[in-house]
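Question: Now follow the chain.
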Amino acid sequence: MAGLSNKLIFSNSIKGRGTACNPANRFDKIEYLAEVISEETDEKAETIFYEDASRSIIAYNDSPDISFEASINPYRGCEHGCVYCYARPFHNYLGLSAGLDFETKIFVKKNAARLLESELSAANWHPTPLALCGVTDPYQPIERKLKITRACLEVLARFRNPVNIITKNELICRDIDLLTELNRFRAVSVCISIATLDADLAGIMEPRASRPHRRLDAVRKLAEAGIPVGVLVSPVIPGLTDHEIPSLLEEIKRAGAGYAGYITLRLPFGIKTIFESWLNQNFPDRKEKILNRIREMHNGKLYDSAFKSRMRGEGHYAEYISNLFHVAARKAGLDNPSPELSVSSFRRNRSGQMTLFDFYGKNF
């Protein structure tokens, strides 16, 4: 059946994808309703890559609960397909859905390194730590081929501009050589994101991200290389993953991480629909318990956009998670601050010439 509505009825799943649904773009007034399919299918949703025509690469924010002011994102959309990803609604600005579109229609910034070199060379650039991943993961699968993130790291290493990297992909270990060079000038830190140690849960929740044990291996390799590395336990999903916090922090410490933090689940805009559909598909018996605990932490709503509380929640259950995390982190020796990066070694490109970055494989 087809018609006009503001409700989603698409509920099937596609193997290897976080969601099969495409909630309506919140900026559109009309939604097309597809026929309901309730079972998992063998249908494949191929990923399509588009060239992003951005003319700048450094983005700025002034949010009081975000630890960085400037960031770079080589990709828009993310093939990891994490069902809970807070970045999904950003695809609405491209005229696309936060659902399946977000993980199958990826925009790549082929000129990211060239743009970054230009902006760091500008006379008005004041050296500041950059976050490599303010929105989507810089080490998603296509990075193995395109090496756009690596090209950006080459620029950062040459300028000695500090960078903090957040990822859930072991592919970051490929670039240990560049991270080591940056670390000579206290210009790098890495945060690996891990939500669960349960490989089966991770497989349906984060279908194309590195499995938890591989992320722990990445922590171990980075620590052995002397790279400052911590872990972001994110997202903590009340009623689903919060009980893992103590054991997860113990494993993180054993892997060699120096610090840890956490963020609770965020469900802005269309992610609420996607997440509820995912719970229906995978945890129907626990769905109401999980949703009720989320509501308890956000004044009866599934999401509260207020600064500070949007990251941690409020109320008794939020306090329980906070206490559980901080006690476990202290016991594990992970209650340390993230390293302070230095801009003192920054050097501007004085050659007057742009470095050429050649990207192979036009048919990406």
